[in-house]
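Human: For the file, kindly provide a plain-text protein record giving the amino acid sequence and the backbone structure tokens, at your earliest convenience.
Assistant:
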Amino acid sequence: MRLQLMLRAEKVPRPNAGWFSSKKPNTFAIVSRVSDIGSVMGIKRHRIQATEVIPASSTPEWATSYRSVSLCSSTYVHIHFIRILLTTTHRIPASSTPEWATIIIFEHQPGSDERLAIDVFHTDQTKRQENENNRGEHSPLYQGKVHRGAPVPTDAEQVCAVLLPVKEMIHNDDLSLTIKIPKTKDGNIHARVEYCRPDASELAASFKLHLRGHSLLNVRRNVLEKPEYYYEIHRRHQQHTAATPDDSDAWVLVHRSEKKGATNPFWDINFFDVEQFVNHDLSRDLRIRVFDLEVSAGVGRRRTIIGQVTTSSHGLLGAVTNNGNCDLSRAFQLLSVDGKKKVGQIVVVAAEFVTNDNISNDNFSSSTVITTAIAQPLSLSELEIMPPPATPTADSISVITTPTFVSSSASNNNNNAFDQVMTFCDLELCVAIDFTKGNGDPNVPGTSHYRSNNNLNDYQWTMTTVVETLAAYSERNEYSVWGFGGQYNGQDQPIFLCGQSAKARGTGGILSAYEATFQTEIAFGSSRKLDTIIAAAAQHARKSLAGAEQHDRRSYTVLLVLMIGEDRDILAAKDKLVAANSAPLSIIFLRLPSPGSSPFDPLKLEVYLGNKGCRDFCICQDMKTIVGTRDSEKLSKLIMKGLKQQVPKFFYG
């Protein structure tokens, strides 16, 4: 039996901040499945010992250890207490009545006495200060330690814990259960479940939604203040067929947006799993509520509801604007909670079910179930990294001296999750360079590979900026430099070594390896295939991590792909990208300017990998503007922004 679990709480205990503290908790919850096995002689079972929590697995292994406790002269209990981690919710700041926008899907064996453990924590830490400032009511966790197998912030303080009997909950008519929080007067955890509907073949794996507000009411006391708007989407609960918009027990929170400071806010594009969003029910009622969040020293943290509208997935699809985001002909009218006042409009900029056919013409599975592909380690025989046939002399290699650029985005910040990871982790860098014909004649000024003693070309400038940005996180400053798409002996090579050494040291070494390639008998090829490059980087990343772990360290690899071409070149390597998802690897695709290139759309890759259940590990950027203005700071910030999200997520989940 497949179930969906939704959680909220009321009057969560305050953290230990002193007797007279009025501090409200910043709460998140860890949800895990609890089971126990063992033998009991003569008395009722008691839980005696807990093993470690492991991520959900069909074949878990535990370090089995039993504990015998003498309860009387002739009675002993042998119990093994097991927890399997299901999920960790988002953190909701400054609220003793949190409602988590996390739909937890799990399997339940009918008739079993399975229980779910709900552990609620308080933390003061956030992943980034600007993230805290831009989220409506929640922010992702800054994870620094482990609690029973689940990564939690270093300062996390457990404020309450309850056990939720699934069997009792599904036997209730409304499929809900309220559990009293121990040692509190009125504290409760409210849990509700739904039965997962069977997959509907006509539905895709993701629902794309892009909303904007128009002429939203300003409810601030000082009308000169700029409001901070965010919205929430609730869906009607399965057991409430005739719910009204104000019946709080009938609605389940499925999404809470970021906040935007504008009267006509553009909120971010979101992709929702169809099962978690509407449980495969397109006619399910959806309630959209818009709030203003005011955070100040005078009022603390106060949210005010602006208005609401009720629709459905079908309604959102039918309300998509025809003539751009300023077209209000199909906009939803927001009404105050009492329904008497118009308080603005919601414009549906985009709403669609994203199928695999939207991503490429290949025939992929249309299943709505998203799974994560697990890659098998590659053998060395699968990779052929060949050096150039000709050996350049030392005199023929021109080493270019370049200015050092250190990005402010790469500065040491101990309050950042990325910086904490990098205290025990070394960053590896692999550079892959495009040597295909589309780059133009390298002897003609203005082409991508044209080399001058006075100026860096596009490849040299980009490599210099990226390497100097990441150098602070590499202990050895030794990097792999590969080429792809070049021809040797009339054959296109999917990967080959640039320079004569497996590693190039520093920026100068990378530029020397790049220059050395032109001293060989290389010809520009026509095949821009990225599969082998990606596979090589994934293997390199896994081997580096395995070696680092032998010394109680960690390793994470960045593959920098410098290329011209189109987004279809990247999508052609989609299977290798899915396989690389499990490696400690981030891939940065930088498309350099080239004549006649079409618009670069990285969204297709993002949607495809998301539908495959992959983590966020790719960065795609069209470099036309950045390279044209030689904006080193912008490029550095772009890369560090992505890595500071991706690296901690790999190690902490």
About this structure: The longest helix spans residues 632-652. The chain is about 20% helix and 30% strand.
